[in-house]
Amino acid sequence: MAARILDGVAVAQQIRSEMAARAAEFTRRAGRRAALQIVLVGDKADSQIYVNSKMKSAADEGMKATLSHLPASATLGEILRLVETLNADPEVDGILVQAPLPQSFGSTAIQQVFDSIDPAKDVDGVTPLNVGRLVQNRAALVACTPAGIVELLERSQIDIAGKHAVVIGRSDIVGKPVSLLLLHHHATITVCHSRTKDLASVAASADILVPALGRPGFVRRAFVKPGATVIDVGINLVTDRNVAYGLFHENHPRRGLFDRKGSVLVGDVHPEVEEVAGAMTRVPGGVGPLTIAMLMANTIKAAESRAKST
Amino acid sequence: MAARILDGVAVAQQIRSEMAARAAEFTRRAGRRAALQIVLVGDKADSQIYVNSKMKSAADEGMKATLSHLPASATLGEILRLVETLNADPEVDGILVQAPLPQSFGSTAIQQVFDSIDPAKDVDGVTPLNVGRLVQNRAALVACTPAGIVELLERSQIDIAGKHAVVIGRSDIVGKPVSLLLLHHHATITVCHSRTKDLASVAASADILVPALGRPGFVRRAFVKPGATVIDVGINLVTDRNVAYGLFHENHPRRGLFDRKGSVLVGDVHPEVEEVAGAMTRVPGGVGPLTIAMLMANTIKAAESRAKST
Q1: How far is CA A303 from CA A74, A87, A107, A119, in A?
Q2: Are A103 and A148 in a shared domain?
Q3: What is the mean pLDDT of each run of 10 residues along chain A (310 residues)?
Q4: What is the CATH number for A69?
Q5: In chain B, what residues touch A183 (CB-CB under 8 Å)?
Q6: Is the pTM of this model over 0.90?
Q7: What is the residue range of B203's domain?
Q8: Residue A72, Cβ neighbours under 10 Å: how many?
Q9: Considering its fold, how many domains does chain A have in total?
Q10: Is B225 a residue of the active site?
Q11: Is B163 a catalytic residue?
Q12: ipTM over 0.95 threshold
């Protein structure tokens, strides 16, 4: 039996229209729009695409979205000073610094920048204070992708409590926070990673499987218990024909897409999993739209909470 | 074959003598002793016992230990003002507020007090900032019991990397932080709790089992894979004769102890598990002494780091 496809676009749209209503209410009360400020450093193409989607969504939902675009030649000091200015600006509700920074900044600079964000404006949930509050199950602002995954499960009427959730990947931005959220929703959680032994059989013990490792089509049929829910967090651009053809059979429309464009966007889950899973997301159209919807939710939450506390 | 018993007292002693050397070096350089300040509110008997052990250990290792003992009738405001004073005192390196507060304070007061501690002096690892840094694998000050568990495993030459660690319990103070630490040491981790289905069989999949649920003798033979390492975090005072007799057979010396004293301290692990585990801790003499040793380690770390940054 084919899996029920969880439509991330539809659920995201539902959340976004709720947020648009709250944004309108905020504007009415505060006399200004809730404001999201995005900081982008350099010209990485996919970062620009992500940033544009976020800007457009904020505008669509009736918020103010502003981009501070610094050149790749900017210094860390300049970025930190910019964040400081945005922290101090009473008309900025949410600050998002698009990761990654250009490689020239080294690997620790991004966390230094994240650390400098006012936690009350941390709509991406990256400051240690907000992460600590997440562990303590009292976070106001939670990282958008993990929050989106839980929202998608809940709005799709998929029970989390008492279920065994297996997360593949232990990143700060997805693996760890989504595990904590699922734990707080009363799942038994298992976190797997590159050092996990017999990963396929651990994954196959999951009622809810959340691959977030960034390897195209890595999760095969053998990783999935029949009837399990699979939430694919990977977003991988495949440009290798062998990889694309290994994922999509001859008559699959997405193979045709690859043939025309020379690339195709795929998740961490092989399409064959649709034959065994009970419910699953697709890439694109799965978790991605939820990430943006939750950014909108965080921005309006931050705006409301800041308005209350002043 | 009987399990190898992991001797928490011996490992703690080793750590404490290392800390005594660092404390002496600190005193020589700083011209004052590293200083731990404990705040105790009310007269709960076991809290007083814990506090006395901590005070004595700090003194033994050449640190200064001071107790602020407030009556149960103190107000939350008084506690918060006291913490503020200790935060501002340049000669206080570590602040520990003994949990729990008297019941009259309600359930949220303790976190409010924790939140008010300067993270640089947070030797119990309870502030959200330090918890967030733990998630991000860059914590300087980690909760003492979780840190002690990892230290005990490492100093007992028990590999963590690539192993499956199952933690039973999801408290802020043990279950969640020890899971994160084990994950950062490259274990595959599973966190179980009251809503976990078929707990015994999940536990029996563990190479390293960490029961931290607070139920005397809950973990039986069927919960343990032969040869697994079992780290018992429970500390339960049993006063019920049926419970005590169910744990200790007729000729067990601890049954004799119970008969003489009317109570006995036991862990979450039934003694029969010693017949199946490869290595395990006992209660008392297991994780408990490590908790105190790690408090000493955190205090000296905090003192060194504060001296460096001023």
Answers
A1: 29, 13, 31, 13
A2: no
A3: 95 98 98 98 94 97 98 97 98 97 96 98 98 96 98 98 98 98 98 98 98 97 98 96 95 94 96 97 97 98 92
A4: 3.40.50.10860
A5: 170, 176, 191, 193
A6: yes
A7: 144-289
A8: 13
A9: 2
A10: no
A11: no
A12: yes
